[in-house]
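[Automated response] Your request has been received and processed.

Submitted sequence:
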Amino acid sequence: MGTGKKAVSARGVALQVLVNCRRRGAWSDSALSSAIRSAGLSHRDAALASRICYGVQQNQMLLDFWLGKLCSVPVDKLELPVCCAMELAMYQITFLERIPDAAAVNESVELARFNSRNSNSPRLVNGVLRSFVRQRENLPHPDSLSVAYSHPQWLVELFAQELEGEGVEALLAADNSQPPTVIHTNPLKTSPEQLRRRLEEEGVTVGENPYFAESFTLSGSGDLEHLGSFREGWFLVQDTAARLAVEAAGVQSGMEALDVCAAPGGKSFQMAMQMGDQGSIISCDLQEKKLKRLTEGASRLGIGCIQAQAADGRVFQERWENRFDVVLTDVPCSGLGIIRKKPDIRYKEPQPLSALPAIQRDILTNASRYVKPGGVLAYSTCTVLRRENQQVVEDFLESHKDFKLEPFVLPVIGECDGMITLWPHIHQTDGFFMAKLRKQL
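Generated structure:
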């Protein structure tokens, strides 16, 4: 990539991130954060860079389908920055109403001029994009759901095994929507009423959350870390599904709890707030860097009951045997429930996913040894696949007769029979699974 003024524009940052993700396999969320900071983008430009970068990833297969109809060079033969520059413009023209077509076209022509090794690239980009603008009302529609919603065919087929009929298309559409920014009031610091007033004073639009009166959906917030209310720990950023998983576990003030796979810490923080910071929580992860961030998050929120410890969820710790009232296992998973937040998940190779259930069973089995008689073992993932969810729990119960599924009640949803899968297109949350198991006395 070149250097100079164009490289630090919102579209320049988006192009840089898209190229890095495809060339080096970088994850877009961390790559975006780093690129935005490095470029020193304003809140407004940072929001635009994020929107168009994620938008291209959400629609890449559809955009490339159209590109293949208009470009004389096969898509897979295009220089990568040139291909990404055209995708950026096509996304803006198709999906963003407030950006003039000419601005989208001209900026992508300049990006091609700046980032391509071929002097003919600007002319090619200009011609293709002008044809796209002229023909966009009559562009062909792809025959397959895979291309129309930019999900690889293997993933569409996998979802079809979990859902029936129109549910598959509704899920794919939800994956391509903008995820809401959900926050939860920190009762250790403030009240919902005070938080709402403070956020509105900071210029944030605050909406209701259908599940929790003390939770809100934000818009117009930009980078939340710049808000005084965030820095002072007045709220926790967390999707509603994760909050519901903690609700299902039923932690109460004074309990001893263990979060086996805790980083980045959201569920540990939510447990601590539900407990009124009274009791103790041991929050584990393998990586010291992640534990440092967890400790910093607890400090920001004013939480004192959390101890961060390095531990492998699959390796037995004798000192914890039969000790905890609640053991939470939010295990490593395929992440297929959070595609709307991390659109690049859909383009990862499917083969490594087959190894996950064995890892998940190992963690659940090991964690079960830490639950005291009468205590709760909570299992959760951010995926929607039965083989990582219900099947793991059912296999565990088959070999652990001292545990039983226990019904729980969730706001809005009502009573659950011990397990539930949340779907983006049905529950308006992340795709998520949770189960509650009680160890018999």
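Summary generated for your ticket: The two ends are 63 Å apart (CA to CA). Residues 1-7 have pLDDT under 50 and may be disordered.
If you did not submit this request, please reply to this message.
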